[in-house]
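User: Let's play a game. I give you a shape written as tokens, and you guess the letters that built it. Ready? Here's round one.
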């Protein structure tokens, strides 16, 4: 009888465990579908017929697959290809600037003792707390009114050339590097620049990769700031250019979805080819040492 009771309890436990796993799986599938639905709808709309408004597309899957929406996107404006190149230029220089300047600043805060370093790093932390929207008005006045940089790459790139978050990220990572290693390099006669380039940067490839990926994504997807400082269609980035497909009475829906699919392509490539760094970016800098 005792063994029968134990067997029944074991079966009940397995049943409960199975039901729990089934419910969790269903919930995860539903959440995954809800998350992926906009992406699927965007891609299906891009490969569907060239229609003007979303109201004409009653189903997720188009009646026929065609590339006419992509053709309409590239023929919509003489600057369509230029928008893509502008985004590439802006994202590339923003990434380079952050990798160079944020890594140098992070190393200085982490391993170089100088007067006022704690107070200065405190200001960096305070800058991280300020909402992005709050800084747009003074930045706009400075870039557009004072420096007269409207419709230039400098106006789009400079405000994001080195962010407080990336400085914080590098500082946290470099703080975990062994100080005796740096001290021994000094004894061997290396100056700070040689230590930084020959020792610190090779050891910091992980944080630099994570920083470059996050910065590229942020810069590529940025809409508001490029929209503020550009009025010439030739200087639009791809995100600002997509706004041109929306008019007062109608929206060129399918060509806009084709452009959105093209703009999302670098994100897809980066995610699937650099998943390891995406996962490391979640935890890097969270634990000191």
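Assistant: Ready! My guess for every position:
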């Amino acid at each position: 009888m005792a063994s029968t009771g134990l067997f029944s309890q074991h079966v009940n436990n397995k049943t409960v465990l199975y039901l729990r796993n089934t419910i969790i799986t269903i919930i995860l599938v539903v959440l995954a579908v809800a998350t992926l639905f906009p992406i699927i709808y965007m891609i299906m709309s891009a490969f569907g017929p060239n229609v003007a408004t979303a109201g004409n597309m009653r189903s997720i899957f188009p009646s026929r697959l065609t590339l006419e929406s992509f053709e309409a996107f590239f023929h919509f404006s003489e600057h369509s290809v230029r928008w893509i190149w502008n985004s590439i230029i802006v994202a590339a220089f923003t990434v380079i600037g952050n990798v160079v300047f944020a890594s140098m600043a992070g190393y200085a805060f982490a391993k170089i003792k100088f007067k006022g370093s704690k107070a200065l790093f405190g200001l960096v932390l305070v800058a991280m707390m300020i909402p992005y929207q709050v800084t747009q008005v003074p930045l706009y006045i400075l870039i557009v009114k004072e420096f007269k940089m409207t419709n230039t790459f400098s106006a789009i790139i400079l405000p994001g050339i080195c962010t407080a978050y990336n400085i914080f990220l590098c500082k946290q990572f470099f703080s975990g590097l062994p100080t005796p290693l740096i001290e021994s390099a000094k004894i061997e006669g290396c100056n700070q620049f040689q230590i930084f380039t020959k020792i610190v940067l090779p050891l910091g490839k992980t944080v630099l990769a994570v920083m470059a990926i996050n910065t590229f994504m942020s810069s590529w997807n940025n809409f508001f700031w490029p929209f503020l400082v550009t009025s010439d269609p030739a200087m639009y980035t791809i995100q600002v250019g997509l706004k041109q497909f929306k008019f007062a009475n109608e929206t060129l829906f399918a060509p806009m979805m084709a452009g959105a699919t093209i703009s999302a392509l670098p994100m897809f490539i980066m995610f699937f080819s650099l998943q390891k760094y995406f996962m490391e970016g979640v935890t890097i800098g969270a634990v000191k040492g």
